[in-house]
Every structure is written in structure tokens, then in C-alpha cells.
Write a structure and sequence with these properties.
This protein has 1143 residues and is an alpha/beta fold. Helix content is 51%, strand content 13%. About 5% of the residues have low confidence.
Length: 1143
């Protein structure tokens, strides 16, 4: 695909704004990278003047890698000296290029303008877990305050009665805080004034959308009903249903208002429809007429499906007033909780995911900020634009002065918009297209129709199905028009589609289940069929890693996992949910819970049964019979008689002592090292996934340990909260190239492609769960309400909620079709549509959607489709389009007989049948290792210590503990920035000496923190008081010790603040604190965090703070020890900034 197609060539034009619609597999990333490099090659601009925005970090990484590769390839070519100089300059600038997600872009903007944004310059972006904790505390505190306020508690009591409990209210308020962006919008245009005005707004919105939903179709539906009814009365003049319907249809014309017409039509439905809301057959339409009018019936039934959701019998005025009172009361409570949450974040210098966008959007309106950004960014390129929203539109368009300046390039595909749950808004794509078209004309709306991914059969099938499904789109329901795929594959693989139809659980037991049928089909595909696939322009037999199972929900992963383990199919679960609910995580939680409390019998029994110790239940039963108040006492008494468990007792006692004085990250590594836990997990069929999950937990634990003053108790509570509340945390992602079948959700598969795709559980219905409270930017805050003031009667839907639900249901249907499109278009060569047999597939299932286009016959074992499809032919570097006929034969498979199932007993044999024995010495060639400044410093101090710490994984702390001696050295260990440790490193040891009875490393951390946040001397008292009063310090510091620590810090900083070196450092304006540097050097990665880096014209100054407690005469020697660390930083900086002459 190195040769550009005519459509791709047009998309590289960068003198005008362009909107590009890119079909699946059309090479949009290729076009993005080419366009990016064409701009930097031809225009005299810096790479920092281009912003390339992608939807995910992974997409940004892929785009960056592709651009970097093309730069390297260009430099290697035989080009002129001037061009070589230009491309070398581009390569140097790549490290600072703006190729990122929207959030990374906004973080950079906020770092540049913290004063204008009114935020802490050293703000910390927080994850969902931290945000959840703060929200929970804020909501709990504010609800308690409101209850104690006599003027407000009656209001909150009414709201709680509606929800049923205080916990339900807390849950609702927490969700509202997550959706505060929408609430900000609706407060301005719905809830701005008093209750009467709110009710007026409700009525206007209701009338507006009632008209949008029904007005255009009313005449057509009425005519279709009349057509059917005329046929009924023609066959039987006295048909009772027909006569009533005829009478009601005449009344419709007498009504002037839409609502009146709909009321009559609703009454008409009581005669026209059955209890299942389908047009009557018995006693009304004859068999031949029923078939003849199938199209009319479908239109009528679809219309009534929406109409019957409206309740015209309720008192709208009374209900709307109740809704207004409820919404305003709820918003008052929400506002108090939100302010509390904002206060907590501000005190800690935190910004959550939503803040980053909201603060950026707000400062865009600042004239000074927008002026700077307009100067800075000349070109903005945004990928996956169908998944953007109004907030992002309001960030980027002002930077380009609403297209009056600069250049905008958006690329996306409306057919692949599947992220409405993340607030993606298709209207924004249409709005931006119209903006561009008005300014640049129709020529600025381009497309990439040619797909290089799908084989002819899959390409033709996709067009055949979705040409029909996407016809007559209604923008109100986010329906989109179809754009035909043009097959640009030029190999010999035609492709194949199969439908797997498993037995229903209600049917005979001998029928195969869907997970079993899927597993058997995969075994047959790899071991027997051995179909060819095209990989990098070479054909090869299909293997495990070429297959992906795509599911709509993660809940299906477990049943697939069970089937694959049974048939020994290697698999990986990509981003499976329930990370914290995996059994190994429970085992680790139990271990630390026991270390915290030896009386926790449940935790102890859990770890004894786990791979940590592997005790059988029979032994645990014997232990339970021994005397003792706790199971721990029983175990110790049992070991007196049965001494084979003495080592187990010794290990647990050792770790209990260690856990009280060491970081949890170190204890975690120790318990892994001394037990068969990791080896046991690694031996399982999904061992790679389990080990990857453990690595993720180690990384999380390392990060948690770096939080100031966390204890074992905090860590146990953290894990407990995560296990109980965080159900959607993804499991660790494995390399997609690993030798295994990939199991993932359809949303995770977006942007990926696989030779063989199984769409799993296609007969399952899409079930929408209604929320207690719905926030909609068009309709406001909505909820079902009690029919009267008794709170125990049935709840009713306010009219506005009914209207909103009608629209949302149609939007869900439209997105489900797009999700099916995404699933089908992930397949390159082979597509398997897996389902369970149903008499009638639900319309909210993939099979239901497909059956509206393809007629399934239970008696037939093959579905035949004849159609035409477009091809793009590359002949001697000239492209031409052709239209070809194609017959698609789709076998329907109910069962599979395997010839000889080997159950994949030796995966290695399948990888390479020829076993080669190499008797040469094994030489270790490490690669990909991260070398930090800390490692350099430890090595220069003592190579033997380095070997013990990093090569053997033994730290001095562990060695000291094993040879426990109460008389420990008081020598101060050199202090390094703990955040430089990667997830595989052990931190350097901490000594137990005390200066003023506080840990010396604590003083160092606080001083670093103060210098990082640039606190003034007069601010130190307040800052230290606020820090040292946190509950974590109560465990390690008493009041006297805290005062000593505070005075020591103030004295040290007073000397530093009054020194000339501080004045010099402080005089520079262009600097960064806590500056991360990262450099790939051959097979290694060099990494460090510099305390402060100062940028001059041709000079960079590196500042590294040290807080060692040493004598004056020792300074010279200590400087020598620190020089390798500083030289290490200098080396990285010199490589990253080639224009720097001096450091």
C-alpha cells in the first residue's frame, strides 16, 4: 500500500480545511502520517506548531511510531545535503511533537497557563480510583451537613423518600458529579429561573420533540392504516375492527393539534394491534393480504412501538411541576457536594479527567490565552472525529478562530461511531463538516472508500447488509448514511463467512452449546482446515494468533475461558474486566489482611489454600480441631505436633514483622520470591494473562507505595475498596502478537484487524438498564416519580422522560447497527457469526438485525446471496474501478466433528515441528532494560550492592532482616527520587536511624515536595501544618516530633532561601520542575526525573536537590558520589537537545 490511491492523494492537500470520511481499512493512519510529514517538509514551521489529536494513547503511539519510521527511512535515502539537514532537524523535534490524545493536549495547555486557569501550577491528574474516593467523602460529608441544617433537611428527606435510601441518593449524586458538564449546560437553559419557568421550559421541549418524532410520519402512517383497512372492508364490509378503525381515521382530520391526532391514533391501535403490538391477522387481515402488506405492517408497527410509550392519561401540569421541584432540590444537593469535591481537589492540587477538559475550555475564552494558542498552532489534525463531543469542538475551533485562521483536518467515519456512553456526539461531526463546507465548498469534503483490509466476500457482504440497514437515516436518532466499501485487496484469498448456530438450552441436552461450538470450530480451523491468510503480502496457514473472538459484553469471557481451557486452546483476554476480582488478587489481599491482623481467620485460611502454600482442605480440617482462639493459634499448635509446617509458621511471622516497617511493594516482591505463587499461575493455560495481571498489581502497588505516609492498613483498605467497588478495571493487556487466540470486546477491537473474526453471542439482546436519574443536555434532569405523595404507590414517567426514552431507544438501535458494522469490518479473510438458535431473534440482537436483511431458513444449511461489488484494481501503478458479480455462500453450522483432537497438548510443536538442539553456551544479551539514574548511582557506589539489588533481586534491607541485629548502622543512605524506580526495581534500602525521632527520609521527601511546589518561606508554617495533620502522620509522629521536624525543615530551607545560589536559580523564568527524561540508547532505555531543569538560549542547567545530613568536610567526597548521576542526566539531555552547547 505504498502507492497512494487517487483518494489518498487528494487527502494530502493541506492548503485548505478538509473533512475526510475514511472507510474501515482505508489506510487513514497512513494518510495522517503522510500529510503530517508533507506539511513539515514543505513548510517552514516547527513540529510544535502542529497538533495531531487521536482518540487513545495507543492510537497516538501508533501514529508517532509511523511518523518516526518514515522520518528514519527518508534520512537513510540518497537525498541532498540540505534535505538531510532538514530531516535531521525534524527527527530532533519529534520528541516534543504534539501527537497525543485530547487530554494530553489539554494538560499541556493547562501547564502553560496555570495562572489563567486558576489552578496549582504543579497540579496532579488523578485516576478514577482517587476521584471516586474523594467524591465519596465529599458526598457523605455534605449530606450529613444538610441533615443537620433545619432549613434544608426537609428538602433532602423528600428526595431520599423518592430514592428509597440515603445510599441510593449518594450513588445518584456521585453519578451527577461525573456528569457535571451536562448539568452545567442544562442549568443555564432549563433551570435558570423559578419553578414556573422550569415547567414552561418542559412544555416547550415536550412539544418540540413530540413534533420531531411523529409529525413527519403521521400522514404516511395514517394512509398505510387506511390502505390495510380498505382491504379488510373490501373483503368483509361488516368487519368490527375495520368499521371502528374507519370511524377513528375520519376523526383524525378533524383535529388541528398533533397531540389530538396522536390520541386518536393510539385508540385506533387498540383495534388494529394485538396484545404484542403487531397488526392483527386473526379476525382482520387475510393470509394473502398479511403477506402482501408486509412493508406497510412494518412501518405501522414501528410507529406504534414509539407511540405506545407515551402516557396521555396523566396530568401533565401536575407531573411537570413535581419533576421541576424534584430536579431543583436534587441540583441543590448536587451543587453542595460538587463544591466540597472541588475544594478537596484544590487543597491537594488534583485535577480529575473531566476537569482537564473543562478548565481548558474555560481558559480558551481568555483573550491572552487564545491569542497565544492561535500563534502557536498553525495546523490541527484530529483523528476518530466521529467520537468527539461539543466540549472538544469548543476547544479546537476557537484556536483556529473558527476556521478563519490556520488549518483543520478532521478524519473519521460516522458508521463507526460507537462511543455514545462516553458522550460522543455525531452531530459535532456533521456540524464541523458544514462549517468547513460553507468556507471551502464541497471539494473540501473528501472520502477514502477503498478498503485494503477485507477480502472480496466480506467486503461484498458488508455492502449488501449495511446498504439496507443504513438507508433513509434520521439524524434525530443518530442514524447515518452508508458509504460503499470498495475492495482494494489484490491477492487470491476470496474470503469466507460462516454462521455457527448452537443449540438452545431449552432443547435437547446433546446439542452443543455456543462456547463449545466456537472452541471446536477454532480447533478445526487451525488443525484441519489450515486455510490460507495473507500476511505482509505472503500467504500462510492460519494460526492461533490470527483469530479473535469479539464480544459485546465482558461477561461472556468466563464461559469462553472455560471452553478454551477444556480444549487446551491458547488464549489471551485483552483488557478483560474484573481485574480486582481475579482470584490471585483476592489471594494477595488475603495475605496482606492477615499480616495486618493475625486474628483474621478468613484471610489466613484463604492464603493457606492458595498457591502461596497449597495446603489441602484435609490438613485445614485437622488444624481446625486443635485448641486456640484463632486459626493462627490453632495452626501454631498443630505445627508443634506436625513440624513439617514449621517453615510456614516462620515465614508468616517473618513477614508480619517486616510488613510493619517496610514498604508494601517490597513485602509483595518478597512473598512472591519465597513461594510457588508465580510458578503455579504461570503453569496454567492462561498463565501469561495471570502473570501480566500480577505485573500490573506490582506496578499499582509501587505507585501506591510512593504516596507519602501510606501504611499497611491503607494498602489493605485500598485493595478492599477496589475489590468491592471497582468492577470495570481492565485486566492487563498482553501483546496482540502473542501466540494465542484473542478475546476482547467489540469496543476494544475498534481500529484493529484480524485474519479470522468470531462475532460471539450474536443472538443476545441488547438490554438497556434505566437509571434512577437521567441527565440529558436537551431534556434536563429526569426521573420516575411517585404517582401521588405517598411514595409507596407506583412510579410514573413524566412526559419528558417518555419522549427522551423514545429517542434514546432509537439511538441505541442505530448504535447497535454501527457496532455490528465495526465487528464485521474487523475481519480480513474469514468471518464467523456465532449465535444460539432462536425461533425469532430479537430486533435488539445482531441476529435480529441481520435477519431483517437476510432471510434465515431453519431447514437450509446454506444461505446464498448474489450481489455486485466494487473493486479497485492496481495495474502497473494505475488504479481503476471495476464492478463485479459475486455469489456468497454462507454455511450454517450446528455441530462439528473433529477428526482427532490433539487438544493442543504441545503448543511448541505447533510453532515449529522441527526440533533443533543447540549445545552451545547460552549467552545472555539483555535488551529493553530501563537504566535509571538511581541504578547508575548505586553501581558507582558499590558494584556488588548493584548485583545484589538489581541482578539478584536482594536488597540490603532484606539481608539485614534475615541477619537481624538490633544494633544497626546509622550511616545515612544517599537519597534518590523514589519516582525513578520502575516496576521491576527494588528501592535502595532505608535505614532506621532517627533525627529528632522522625524518619530522615521523611524530611527529605517534604523538602523535595516544598521545592517542587515552590512554596515561599512565609507559607511553610501553613503548608507543613496542613500536611502534618493528616491522619497518616498520627501513626509515626507525635506532636513533639512533628514540631521538631517542622523546625528542622524551616531552618534548612531558610538557609537555602537566603543563599545566593537560590536567588540565581529563582531568577530564571524558563524551567520545569520534576522533569522526566527518557532516551532509547541501542538496546537500553535511559530514564530519570530531574528535580529542576532551566532552559537558556544555548545552555541548560540541571538542578538536583540533596538533603543528606553530613559534615562540611564530607561535602567534597559526597559530590564525587553524586557526579555520575548528574553526568547521566547531562548525557540524556545532550542527546535530546542537540542545539544545546553547554550544560
Amino acid at each position: 500500500m505504498l502507492l497512494l490511491t487517487p483518494h489518498q492523494q487528494k487527502a494530502l492537500e493541506y492548503k485548505h480545511h478538509i473533512s475526510l470520511t475514511a472507510n474501515a481499512g482505508s489506510g487513514k493512519t497512513f494518510v495522517l502520517s503522510k500529510r503530517y510529514l508533507q506539511i513539515v517538509e514543505n513548510e517552514d514551521i516547527s513540529l510544535r506548531e502542529i497538533a495531531a489529536i487521536t482518540f487513545t494513547d495507543k492510537a497516538a503511539s501508533e501514529l508517532y511510531k509511523r511518523i518516526a519510521t518514515e522520518v528514519e527511512d527518508t534520512i537513510k535515502k540518497d537525498i541532498s545535503r540540505d534535505k538531510l539537514k532538514k530531516w535531521n532537524q525534524i527527527r530532533r523535534q519529534l520528541v516534543s511533537a504534539h501527537i497525543s490524545t485530547i487530554h494530553s493536549f489539554c494538560v499541556d495547555v493547562l501547564r502553560q497557563f496555570p495562572v489563567e486557569a486558576k489552578i496549582d501550577a504543579n497540579f496532579t491528574p488523578i485516576d478514577q480510583i482517587t476521584s471516586n474516593e474523594l467524591i465519596e467523602l465529599a458526598v457523605e460529608e455534605e449530606i450529613k451537613k444538610i441533615f443537620q441544617n433545619e432549613e434544608k433537611n426537609s428538602e433532602i428527606k423528600k428526595v431520599i423518600r423518592i430514592f428509597g435510601s440515603k445510599n441510593s441518593l449518594s450513588e445518584v449524586i456521585s453519578n451527577l458529579i461525573y456528569e457535571r458538564r451536562k448539568i452545567s449546560t442544562i442549568q443555564n437553559h432549563i433551570y435558570k429561573n423559578n419553578i414556573d419557568n422550569v415547567v414552561d421550559n418542559y412544555n416547550k421541549i415536550y412539544d418540540e420533540y413530540l413534533d420531531k418524532i411523529f409529525a413527519d410520519e403521521l400522514r404516511d402512517v395514517t394512509e398505510k392504516i387506511g390502505l390495510l383497512n380498505d382491504d379488510v372492508l373490501k373483503n368483509k364490509k361488516d368487519n368490527k375492527y375495520g368499521l371502528e378503525i374507519e370511524h377513528l381515521l375520519l376523526k383524525i382530520s378533524e383535529q388541528n393539534k398533533l397531540k389530538g391526532k396522536l390520541l386518536i391514533l393510539k385508540k385506533t391501535g387498540s383495534y388494529l394491534l394485538t396484545s404484542k403490538n403487531s397488526v392483527r391477522k386473526q379476525g382482520y387481515l387475510k393470509n394473502d393480504s398479511y403477506l402482501q402488506f408486509s412493508e406497510e405492517r412494518n412501518l405501522i408497527e414501528e410507529f406504534y412501538e414509539r407511540l405506545l410509550k407515551l402516557n396521555f392519561d396523566i396530568n401533565e401540569e401536575v407531573t411537570n411541576k413535581k419533576l421541576a421541584e424534584f430536579s431543583l432540590s436534587l441540583l441543590n444537593i448536587f451543587q453542595s457536594c460538587l463544591e466540597n469535591y472541588e475544594m478537596r481537589k484544590t487543597e491537594l492540587g488534583f485535577l480529575d479527567y473531566e476537569d482537564i477538559l473543562l478548565y481548558t475550555k474555560d481558559i480558551i475564552s481568555n483573550p491572552g490565552v487564545i491569542s497565544e494558542l492561535k500563534k502557536k498552532f498553525k495546523y490541527i489534525m484530529i483523528d476518530e472525529y466521529q467520537d468527539t463531543n461539543e466540549l472538544q469542538y469548543n476547544i479546537f475551533l476557537p484556536i483556529l478562530d473558527y476556521l478563519k485562521k490556520g488549518n483543520l483536518f478532521i478524519v473519521g467515519d460516522e458508521k463507526q461511531s460507537i462511543y455514545s456512553f462516553r458522550d460522543a456526539d455525531l452531530k459535532i461531526f456533521s456540524k464541523t463538516k458544514n462549517d468547513i463546507m460553507k468556507l471551502e465548498g464541497n471539494d473540501s469534503l473528501l472520502s477514502l472508500p477503498d478498503s485494503f483490509r477485507m477480502s472480496p466476500v466480506i467486503s461484498a457482504f458488508t455492502n449488501y447488509v449495511f446498504r439496507d440497514l443504513f438507508s433513509n437515516p434520521n439524524p434525530l436518532y443518530n442514524e447515518v448514511a452508508y458509504s460503499e466499501l470498495v475492495c482494494a485487496r489484490n491477492d487470491d484469498i476470496k474470503g469466507r463467512i460462516e454462521i455457527l448456530s448452537a443449540g438452545n438450552n431449552d432443547e435437547a441436552d446433546e446439542e452443543i452449546t455456543e462456547p463449545e461450538l466456537t472452541a471446536k470450530r477454532i480447533l478445526k480451523l487451525v488443525n484441519e482446515d489450515k486455510w490460507n491468510i495473507n500476511e505482509q503480502r505472503e500467504e500462510k496457514n492460519i494460526q492461533w494468533q490470527d483469530i479473535s473472538i469479539l464480544c459485546r459484553r465482558r461477561k461472556y469471557f468466563k464461559e469462553l475461558e472455560t471452553a478454551f481451557v477444556k480444549y487446551r486452546i491458547p488464549f489471551t483476554i485483552v483488557g478483560g474486566q474484573g481485574f480486582y476480582q481475579r482470584q490471585p488478587i483476592y489471594d494477595i489481599y488475603n495475605y496482606f489482611s492477615f499480616l495486618l491482623d493475625k486474628k483474621n481467620d478468613t484471610a489466613l485460611i484463604g492464603i493457606l489454600r492458595s498457591p502461596f502454600f497449597n495446603l489441602p482442605d484435609s490438613t485445614l480440617f485437622e488444624v481446625s480441631l486443635k485448641p486456640g482462639e484463632s486459626f493462627w493459634q490453632k495452626l501454631k499448635n498443630y505445627s508443634v505436633i506436625n513440624n513439617r509446617h514449621n517453615s510456614l509458621i516462620k515465614t508468616l511471622e517473618e513477614n508480619t514483622k517486616l510488613a510493619s516497617s517496610s514498604e508494601v511493594s517490597f513485602v509483595l516482591r518478597k512473598i512472591f520470591a519465597e513461594s510457588p505463587f508465580i510458578s503455579t499461575l504461570a503453569s496454567r493455560i492462561n498463565g501469561k494473562q495471570e502473570i501480566a495481571n500480577l505485573q500490573k498489581l506490582i506496578f499499582i502497588t509501587n505507585n501506591y507505595s510512593q504516596k507519602p505516609f501510606t501504611t499497611l492498613y491503607d494498602y489493605v483498605e485500598y485493595l478492599k475498596g477496589a475489590i468491592e467497588k471497582i468492577n470495570d478495571e481492565a485486566q492487563s493487556n498482553l501483546d496482540l502478537d502473542s501466540f494465542a487466540v484473542k478475546i476482547m470486546t467489540l469496543h476494544q477491537a475498534k481500529g484493529l484487524e484480524f485474519p479470522a473474526v468470531f462475532l460471539y453471542r450474536c443472538s443476545e439482546q441488547n438490554i438497556s438498564r434505566s437509571k434512577k436519574v437521567t441527565v440529558d443536555k436537551e431534556f434536563g434532569v429526569l426521573s420516575k416519580l411517585p404517582a401521588d405523595d405517598g411514595y409507596y404507590e407506583d412510579f410514573i414517567e413524566p412526559p419528558l422522560l417518555s419522549i427522551r426514552n423514545i429517542i434514546n431507544s432509537k439511538k441505541d438501535e442505530a448504535e447497535l447497527k454501527r457496532l455490528l458494522y465495526v465487528g464485521i469490518t474487523r475481519a480480513k479473510d474469514y468471518l464467523f457469526i456465532s449465535s444460539t438458535k432462536e425461533k425469532n431473534y430479537g430486533k435488539k440482537s445482531f441476529m435480529g438485525i441481520l435477519s431483517s436483511v437476510i432471510k434465515f431458513d431453519d431447514e437450509s444449511d446454506t444461505i446464498n446471496i448474489s450481489t455486485k461489488f466494487k473493486r479497485l484494481i492496481n495495474s502497473d501503478e494505475n488504479f481503476k474501478n471495476t464492478i463485479e458479480d459475486i455469489d456468497i455462500n454462507i454455511p450454517v453450522i450446528n455441530s462439528i466433528e473433529l477428526m482427532s483432537v490433539k487438544h493442543n497438548e504441545n503448543i511448541e510443536d505447533l510453532i515449529d515441528k522441527k526440533i533443533k538442539i543447540n549445545i552451545n553456551q547460552i549467552v545472555d544479551h539483555p535488551s529493553g532494560e530501563i537504566i535509571s539514574a538511581t541504578k547508575i548511582a548505586v553501581y558507582t557506589q558499590c558494584p556488588l550492592k548493584y548485583k545484589f539489588t538489581y541482578d539478584l533481586g536482594l536488597t540490603k534491607l532484606y539481608e539485614n532482616y534475615k541477619n537481624y541485629d538490633k544494633t544497626k548502622s546509622t550511616e545515612k543512605v544517599y537519597e534518590f527520587n523514589p519516582s525513578e524506580f520502575d516496576q521491576d526495581e527494588d528501592p535502595t534500602e532505608k535505614n532506621n536511624s532517627r533525627l529528632g525521632n522522625y524518619p530522615p527520609e521523611l524530611k527529605g521527601k517534604l523538602i523535595h515536595n516544598i521545592l517542587q511546589k515552590e512554596k515561599k518561606y512565609e507559607e511553610l508554617d501553613d503548608y507543613l501544618n496542613s500536611i502534618l495533620t493528616e491522619k497518616n502522620y498520627q501513626i509515626i509522629l507525635n506532636d513533639k516530633t512533628k514540631n521538631i521536624l517542622k523546625e528542622d525543615i524551616k531552618n534548612d530551607l531558610k538557609e537555602f532561601y537566603t543563599a545566593s545560589i537560590f536567588s540565581e536559580i529563582n531568577s530564571y523564568k524558563n524551567y520545569k520542575n520534576e522533569f522526566e527524561v527518557y532516551l532509547k540508547e541501542n538496546d537500553y532505555y535511559l530514564y530519570g526525573i530531574i528535580d529542576k531543569i532551566i532552559f537558556g538560549e544555548n545552555k541548560i542547567t540541571i538542578v538536583d536537590y540533596k538533603t543528606d545530613n553530613i559534615q562540611k568536610e564530607q561535602i567534597k567526597d559526597r559530590v564525587e558520589n553524586y557526579l555520575p548521576q548528574l553526568n547521566f542526566y547531562a548525557y540524556i539531555i545532550m542527546q535530546l537537545y542537540n542545539n544545546i552547547e553547554k550544560i
